[in-house]
Design brief:
globular, alpha+beta, 5 strands, five-stranded mixed barrel
Length: about 200
Amino acid sequence: MFAFIRGAIVSRQLDHLVVENQGIGYKIFASPELMARFPARGETALIHTSLYIREDQLALYGFPSLEDLKLFELLLTVSGVGPKVASAIVGTFTPGQFAMAVLSGDAKTLTQVRGIGRKGAERLILELKDKLKGADIPEVAGSVSNVPVGSQTVQSEAISALVVLGYSATEATQAVQAAGGAASGLEDLIRLALRQLMR
């Protein structure tokens, strides 16, 4: 319903901010971990949004980047993960870091997130790995399942992040290779690769 909202930030609270656009104030929720990544009160921001609908709840959740939004929406497909926990995960890890934790089965890393215990971390890994079954991870990504998160190259982390976000390994590889020359780091590479994929 709302892909994004651009406007002035008129209020910042622990778990939400209010953005004014053409005389309307939008209350946009975000985890405390994400709040620090939004501009200061009084500044203009473009916030990517997801409308969360349940019988007793209607709420907008906001994110500073499109890849953060995609990760949030992926997390909501996991049983037992609601918007607050999903937002906390997005605020704690970059898509690349989260992808590598899932693909390498690193439950301990995932338990760093507020609200995620050992069982919750294992459920995340199980359900998201199932979504990747049959994915042909290209050689540039290396042997993901046997490599610790911190030792992956920037390119392989970017490819893994895009695969976890729902793109095929082939699409991810082509996009990362096309964007690689202009990127200054992992997050920049993922952002530029996503632009390639959305053309």
